[in-house]
Structure to design on (276 residues):
């Protein structure tokens, strides 16, 4: 640089300082790369300036050294900010993930029966309205089965409430296994009463499901010596099916199944009745 004019040398020094500052930002994640870019330029400038005599050259040397020191401090500070930013983003993402999991758990818990682990009454009501609208649009049949454990009070009196709870759990698992389609729903309707919601299912299909429930319950052979219809746990079922119409309410389907269930109990229990 000795052959360059004073103004040109000063300009070159300033450009070198800018270059070092840029390296301090771009190469802040790698200390080796940072010093690999800064040290050669700084050494060349200092050697060139030391070879000359003059107060201005010594001032420029100090400026170069100060620039190197400032670049290093800037690099470290930016690295701290970057690390803190990454940590905060990671922490926020983790908290958001945990919040989503907690929200989903609460949503599932709010729609699940605490004892039997199948859908509760609220989930059934929600699904009934959704499937009612869906079948109405498709002009397809919607079937519903109400079932009630026969003489369940006598079962609790004889075997205790813990055995009664176990009986309901086994029946809920049976109902969940009988249903094969994702759209079908088994729910606890209340007490010892359960409900099956079967979209796109006619009376024949609903009767087949009801028969399967009775058969599987018979195979479970849960003892019930205080029952008046069998020596094991049985259930009465009422089936209803209709094609939803715009001028109809979904409660009509429940009322039809409830009437059929009442008729099954009246006619001796442990039987299946189809709504008219």
């Amino acid at each position: 640089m000795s052959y360059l004019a004073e103004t040109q040398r000063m300009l070159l020094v300033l450009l070198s300082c800018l270059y070092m500052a840029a390296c301090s930002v771009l190469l802040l994640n790698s200390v080796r790369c940072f010093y690999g870019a800064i040290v050669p330029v700084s050494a060349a400038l200092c050697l060139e300036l030391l070879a000359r005599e003059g107060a201005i050259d010594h001032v420029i040397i100090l400026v170069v050294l100060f620039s190197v020191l400032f670049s290093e401090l800037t690099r470290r500070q930016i690295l701290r900010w970057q690390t803190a930013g990454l940590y905060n983003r990671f922490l926020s993402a983790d908290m958001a993930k945990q919040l989503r999991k907690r929200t989903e758990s609460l949503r599932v818990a709010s729609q699940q029966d605490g004892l039997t682990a199948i859908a509760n009454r609220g989930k059934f009501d929600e699904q009934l309205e959704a499937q009612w609208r869906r079948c109405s649009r498709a002009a397809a049949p919607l079937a519903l089965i109400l079932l009630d454990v026969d003489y369940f009070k006598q079962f609790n009196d004889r075997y205790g409430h813990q055995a009664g709870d176990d009986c309901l759990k086994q029946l809920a698992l049976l109902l969940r296994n009988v249903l094969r389609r994702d759209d079908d729903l088994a729910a606890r309707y209340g007490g010892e009463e359960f409900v099956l919601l079967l979209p796109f299912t006619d009376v024949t299909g609903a009767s087949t499901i009801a028969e399967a429930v009775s058969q599987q319950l018979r195979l479970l052979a849960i003892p019930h010596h205080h029952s008046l219809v069998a020596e094991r746990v049985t259930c009465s079922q009422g089936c209803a099916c209709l094609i939803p119409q715009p001028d109809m309410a979904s409660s009509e389907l429940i009322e039809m199944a409830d009437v059929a269930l009442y008729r099954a109990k009246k006619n001796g229990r442990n039987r299946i009745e189809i709504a008219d």
Summary: The CA atoms of residues 135 and 141 lie 6 Å apart. The domain at 121-274 is CATH 3.30.70.270 (Alpha-Beta Plaits). The beta strands are 142-149, 185-190, 193-199, 235-242, 272-274. The helical segments are 6-26, 31-50, 55-110, 121-138, 152-159, 161-178, 203-220, 251-266.
